[in-house]
């Protein structure tokens, strides 16, 4: 077992990584590969952050494995290993079903072009212009245009087209029509490149393989260990105060990379006093993204369900609106269907329904109301799922719901955010090392550095910064 | 290091990043990005590898200097002469 308790850690390291989300794991791996001694500290008993899974009654439920862009193939080969890359497979059957349209797609550029042309009657020239516009967007481009303006420019008044283009991305990164168009364009282009991909073997296998690679590269991993404070003296990182088995100890390091949420990192772990006033003000302006609700559905051992698609974007709302998707009683949800092919050898079917949600709607309910809302959430979900899989309710032997409170409990994220921060969080995250020497942040920020691919790539970018600091 | 050696180092690093790339017919004057399937993450990898091997720090503002093989050699030449 490579996950150790905190008392086995040494007195000092070159760098300490707080938290083991995909960003933290990747930074730790890159820095270890570059020859630095690394301690990875995780408060939970398993690694992965929101890239997580849990087991119930023989089922394995994936919390955030819903599909990532093809770019993961190259990223996993370069920053992890070939075996991890080889486990990436395409999800070819993406389904949309709402009062405006019903269709099936591979979510690739050519297929989308055909659909927009033949089903929505958009001229090919307009479609190609749209693709080339979003394909050339960079994160440092002008942010004044919103996604709504982008859509209106190319597809004026076409709320059905806007829905087709926006709905999947809202579920992928929590962005809305009012966010900068670049956050939409960059993420949507990534998916359109070659479609939607997943990890064969499930989240547990991926994180297990990453753990092996980290250990091979010499990373010391301590779980059930919580960092209480980043120790900063005279504007410079000295180490962390961390707690494991009820005992707190100081571990020294000239460099700390926090994979905790950006606001937690600044306000709670480092403490605002460590930062200049201007930086504190910029931090106060960072808006966290929304959270999520999920329903986990386990199909009885031996029961079979039809192949109705890998990822279903469903809604009973007449029109698409970001507000409707966030509503506590939203009529919109995605179903990720995991067939036995997902985990070869583990012959089970599971379904995970995901909805966007606001923390404040759920956080202040009485215990009774909270339980009742959770039960209703499960009932609504099953009634919606029956449309695609008639009789599925009778085939289930596990039903469980997660809410923004659940996300908050396991990740400590501010307001249980499941997609990091809005765009302004990126700048704060990137400039943290300019105001406190040796302190870095990696994690979901700015919408674009979010999702599985965004988190891993951001881990590489931050590892480069930290490496430059350590060698300076 | 001679300029030829620097060029070979760059080619070796790129080959590690993209094993399938054909680097034998690279035009040294033309942008690497136009000849190979390299993205901004790949350039970051080159920067990090150069730092690891030669302790050379390349600030972000200088990344455009790594655009072509020739510009890499011109930029790195004076900085790697002592190694």
What does this structure look like?
The complex is a heterodimer of chains A (472) and B (83). With 472 residues, chain A is of the alpha/beta class. Chain A has helices at residues 22-33, 71-79, 82-86, 109-118, 124-135, 147-154, 159-173, 181-194, 202-216, 262-271, 277-284, 322-326, 359-363, 367-386, 392-395, 404-411, 424-435, 451-470; strands at residues 15-18, 38-41, 53-56, 59-62, 68-69, 88-91, 94-98, 101-105, 196-199, 220-222, 225-233, 236-244, 247-252, 255-258, 291-299, 311-315, 332-338, 350-357, 396-402, 439-441. Chain A has 3 domains: 6-51 and 203-287 and 419-470, 3-Layer(bba) Sandwich (FAD/NAD(P)-binding domain), CATH 3.50.50.60; 109-191, no CATH class; 290-411, no CATH class. Chain A has 18 helices and 20 strands. In chain A, the strands form 5 sheets. In chain A, strands 8-7-16-17-18-15-19 form a 7-stranded mixed β-sheet, sandwiched between helices. In chain A, helix 2 (71-79) runs parallel beside helix 18, helix 5 (124-135) packs across helix 8 (181-194) and helix 6 packs across helix 8. Chain A is globular and about 60 Å long. Chain B has 4 helices and no strands. The radius of gyration of chain B is 12 Å and the shape is globular. Chain B has a single domain, classed as Non-ribosomal Peptide Synthetase Peptidyl Carrier Protein, Chain A (Orthogonal Bundle). Chain B has 83 residues and is an all-alpha fold. The chains are: A alpha/beta (472), B mainly alpha (83). Chain A binds chain B through residues 30, 34-35, 75, 78, 457, 460-461, 463-464, 467-468, 471-472, and chain B through 17, 41, 44-45, 47-48, 51-52, 55, 57.
């Amino acid at each position: 077992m490579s996950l150790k308790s905190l008392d086995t850690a040494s007195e000092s390291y070159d760098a300490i990584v707080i938290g083991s989300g995909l960003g933290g794991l990747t930074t730790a791996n890159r820095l270890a590969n570059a020859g630095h001694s690394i301690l990875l500290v995780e408060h939970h008993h398993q690694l992965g952050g929101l890239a997580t899974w849990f087991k119930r009654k023989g089922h394995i439920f994936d919390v955030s494995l819903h599909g990532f862009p093809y770019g993961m193939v190259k990223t996993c080969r370069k920053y992890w290993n070939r075996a991890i890359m080889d486990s990436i497979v395409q999800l070819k059957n993406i389904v949309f079903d709402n009062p405006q349209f019903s269709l099936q797609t591979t979510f690739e550029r050519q297929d989308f072009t055909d659909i927009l042309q033949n089903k929505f009657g958009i001229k090919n020239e307009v479609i190609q212009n749209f693709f080339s516009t979003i394909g050339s967007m960079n994160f440092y481009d002008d942010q004044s245009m919103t996604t709504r303006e982008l859509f209106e420019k190319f597809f004026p008044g076409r709320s059905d087209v806007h829905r087709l283009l926006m709905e999947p991305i809202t579920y992928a990164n929590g962005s809305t029509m009012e966010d900068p168009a670049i956050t939409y364009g960059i993420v949507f282009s990534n998916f359109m490149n070659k479609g939607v991909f997943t990890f064969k073997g499930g989240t547990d296998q991926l994180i297990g393989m990453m753990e092996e690679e980290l250990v091979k590269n010499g990373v010391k991993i301590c779980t059930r260990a919580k960092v209480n404070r980043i120790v900063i003296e005279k504007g410079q990182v000295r180490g962390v105060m961390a707690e494991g088995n009820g005992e707190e100890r100081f571990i020294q390091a000239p460099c700390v990379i926090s994979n905790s949420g950006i606001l937690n990192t600044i306000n709670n772990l480092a403490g605002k006093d460590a930062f200049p006033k201007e930086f504190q003000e910029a931090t106060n302006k960072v808006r966290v993204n929304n959270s999520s609700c999920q329903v986990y559905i386990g199909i009885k051992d031996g029961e079979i369900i039809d192949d109705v698609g890998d990822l279903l974007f469903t809604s009973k709302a007449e029109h698409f609106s970001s507000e409707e998707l966030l509503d506590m009683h939203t009529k919109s949800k995605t179903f990720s269907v995991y067939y036995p092919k997902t985990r070869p050898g583990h012959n089970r079917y599971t379904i995970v329904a995901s909805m966007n949600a606001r923390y404040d709607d759920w956080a202040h309910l009485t215990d009774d109301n909270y339980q009742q809302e959770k039960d209703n959430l499960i009932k609504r979900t099953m009634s919606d799922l029956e449309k695609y899989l008639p009789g599925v309710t009778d085939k289930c032997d596990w039903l469980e719901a997660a809410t923004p409170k659940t996300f908050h409990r396991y990740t400590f994220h501010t307001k249980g955010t499941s997609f990091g921060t809005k765009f302004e969080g990126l700048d704060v995250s990137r400039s943290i090392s300019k105001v406190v020497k040796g302190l870095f942040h990696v994690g979901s920020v700015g919408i674009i550095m979010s999702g599985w691919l965004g988190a891993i790539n951001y881990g590489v970018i931050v590892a480069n910064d930290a490496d430059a600091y350590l060698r300076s | 290091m001679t300029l030829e050696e620097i060029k070979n180092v760059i080619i070796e690093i790129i080959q590690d990043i993209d094993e399938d790339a054909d680097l034998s017919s690279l035009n040294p004057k033309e942008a690497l990005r136009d000849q190979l399937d390299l993205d901004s993450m790949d350039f970051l990898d080159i920067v990090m590898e150069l730092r690891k091997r030669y302790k050379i720090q390349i600030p972000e503002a200088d990344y455009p200097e790594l655009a072509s093989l020739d510009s890499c050699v011109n930029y790195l030449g004076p900085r790697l002469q002592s190694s």
